[in-house]
Amino acid sequence: MEETIFVCEDSIEGILTGVYEAYALRKPHETIRLQTGAVQNYRLFAIYQQVEPDRQKSEKVIRTLYSRFGEAVCTQLEQAMVSYDDGKADAVYHTIVTGLSGRYQGCLMDHLSNRYVHKVFELSRNTGIEMHHLYGFLRFQELENGVLLAKYAPKNDITALLAPHFADRFPGEDFAIYDEKRQYYALHPKNRQWYLVRGSLPFADGQEEFTREEAEYQMLYRHFCHTITVAERKNTKLQRNMLPLRFRRHMVEFL
User: Fold this and answer.
1) Hey, which bits of the chain come out as E strands?
2) Which sign, positive or negative, has the C-alpha torsion 199, 204, 210, 214?
């Protein structure tokens, strides 16, 4: 039987729309694959179908997943869907198929002998670790207009998952979390709901105007970090394990 490959937008909404369309096709699931982004290498004897993201369809899938699997499993699926891994869409789709088939009892993500479940588990864990790091490593800087700006370049597309955490921590602040790699940001007006904005920031990169207090505290913090350093106890390998180099170019104390 010929294979059908759904090409989805690289987003949670795009992948879930692909899942909806795959079920609507009513073909054996083993003959269906999902992938994100542009097609690089076409497979012989396969039919490719482009899937446009549809909010209503993705919300229907989300409601089904929450009712069947619960919040914890859905969180893991969401974290897998924002991974940088090219195989995430197909792994998520076949994990959902596995769960809805009724062949497994208990928590779906406990069945790691299934290669798709194992893949989703690994992707979710990788994303979760990066999020956990950034809860502590993300640095906000106060601009002249009063907005707190944090810039970063994560491996995984996690801005939409980070924003609720910081909205809960800083409900009375205007802040933005800007993903330099993907060029979009989460914007949170104080005491209101945050939302995503596509495109670069409304000023040239590196041309941010900080408040006087912000500039002074940045200088003091860098001086503090250098002052407490004990040269004789320097352990570069341990430091890199605890604070990977890729986070440092956006951290005040390393600028």
Assistant:
1) 3-8, 32-36, 46-50, 141-142, 148-152, 175-179, 184-188, 195-198
2) positive
Q: Which residues pair with 8 in a beta bridge?
A: 36
| Distance from C-alpha of 54 to C-alpha of 33, rounded to nearest angstrom | 19
User: In terms of C-beta distances under 8 Å and separation of at least 24 residues, what long-range contacts does 194-200 make, across chains too?
Assistant: 194/163, 194/164, 194/167, 196/159, 196/160, 196/163
Residue with tokens 């390998």: 237
CB 118 within 8 A of CB 112: yes
153 Cβ neighbours under 8 A, 6+ residues apart = 179, 180, 181, 246, 250
Return the amino acid letter for 102: G
Would you say 114 and 163 are in contact if contact means Cβ atoms under 8 Å apart?
no
C-alpha 150/C-alpha 250 separation (Å) is 8
For 175, list phi and psi in degrees, rounded to 5.
Answer: -145, 160
Q: For residues 194 and 188, is the Cβ–Cβ distance under 8 A?
A: yes
* The pLDDT value given to residue 218: 85
Instruction: From 194, 182, 188, 181, select the one nearest 148 (Cα to Cα).
Output: 188
What is d(CA 125, CA 117) in angstroms, rounded to the nearest whole number?
12
The pTM (predicted TM-score) of the whole model is: 0.87
Residue with tokens 């039919």: 47
158-201 pLDDT, tens digit per residue, is 999 999 999 999 999 999 999 999 999 999 999 999 999 998 87
The pLDDT tens digits for 88-116 are 999 999 999 999 988 888 899 999 999 99
